[in-house]
């Protein structure tokens, strides 16, 4: 009648309270006895008993740890976990129970065990045999069984269909709750990240202005140094705000892409030239093909947006690569597609983070203390709007990373065919 205290307090990642309410209603509607087990075959809900037979069994303690009811239901839950399909069992071929898997997100998260009902009219002798196996009073069991209607196969099938419908509805509700929780966590990350990143440049600007007002305004060199520093932080602030605007546009489908005839060669040259000074400052070598010798590499694209993509990839490579490291840009054509790769010898990407690299607000905090983690998310959106794809490969921490961008090519003009 009551849940196990240990099972109730064990964290499982599911909202078992919601399942308890749903299963309690199912038990009341069908007269069956119902329990729910998690993926470790630990009971998290039930037994919910409404029929006189089920109440007698519950009061007799057959679901106590080590008793027959506890053992047989755990075995059924384990079978369901392995087979991912409904299973059934019986006591003395008369008292039947069934189990169905609890599938959420394609994974077995538990099992619902239900039944403890006679498929036909019971007999005194049969009740005595069942009572001995269960460890209950045979006379009391027969007294309750003879007053209740059996649950034949056809009715049990209807009950199973009803339960599966209820599970499907509850799973949808659970998944919706989990999505809302994910959104709430994302909102918290967003607010914390934005407030921190926007506050930092403003704080530095305020400090610089305060120092200027307190210092000797007649010192041109001091004023110039402060203004240079302030200009840098204004640019940082502007970039953060621009990233937020761009990210919002990608989410609402309002990011403008102006498709025109363009040259991938020129796009790459512009992106590289903007990043090389930063690489040289860290003594990072940039290895790349001689772009002036590869031809125009024609395509239909928004040159400004694609330059933004490759600038982001190259800038990240510089950021995550230690001094004296190397960045390699490679270019090849595969059929009607260009494939551009950016490989670095930097800090790499851990396996747990790899599937989430292109998600908004994903940051490797160890080496990326600045920024909002929006650049790669925006880059993916831009590439996909061009009919291309972007992916990442990394062997793990300190093993570097390779970003590969695939973009559709336009037909090659005759005068460019020879390069």
Descriptive notes:
By secondary structure, this protein is of the alpha+beta class. It has three domains: 5-151, Beta-Lactamase; 185-252, Signal transduction histidine kinase, dimerisation/phosphotransfer (DHp) domain (Helix Hairpins), CATH 1.10.287; 260-416, Heat Shock Protein 90 (2-Layer Sandwich). The protein is 49% helix and 19% strand. It has eleven helices and twelve strands. The protein has helices at residues 5-9, 16-30, 52-59, 68-83, 124-134, 138-145, 153-214, 220-252, 264-281, 303-320, 375-385, and strands at residues 33-38, 43-48, 87-91, 95-104, 107-118, 260-263, 285-287, 298-301, 326-334, 337-344, 389-393, 401-408. The strands form three sheets. It has a five-stranded antiparallel β-sheet with strand order 2-1-5-4-3, sandwiched between helices. Strands 7-9-10-12-11 form a five-stranded mixed β-sheet, with helices on one face. A hairpin with a 7-residue loop joins strand 11 and strand 12. Helix 8 (220-252) crosses helix 11. The chain starts with a helix and ends in an 11-residue tail after the last strand.
